[in-house]
């Protein structure tokens, strides 16, 4: 992605709903990162899973430097 290659400034990526996103992130971690090494540990930190609006809001506030 553009964020991975440094073409754009890093922005907070929020994955809303852990129940929905957990299978996808497990796939990323178990197969793409651990097994095939096609993503880095840094890539896995590009997003944050949340379950609530307040949690998402606080994460975005922390990550965005105005």
Give a quick summary of the entry.
The chain has 66 residues and is α+β, with helices and mostly antiparallel strands. It has helices spanning 2-5, 18-35, 41-44, 53-63, and strands spanning 13-16, 47-50.
What does this structure look like?
Helix content is 56%, strand content 12%. By secondary structure, the chain is of the alpha+beta class. The chain has one domain (11-63). The protein has a two-stranded parallel sheet. The longest helix is centred in the middle third of the chain and has 18 residues, at 18-35. The mean pLDDT is 92.
Question: Can you lay out the helices and strands and say which pair or pack?
Answer:
Elements: H1 2-5, E1 13-16, H2 18-35, H3 41-44, E2 47-50, H4 53-63
Parallel strand pairs: 1-2
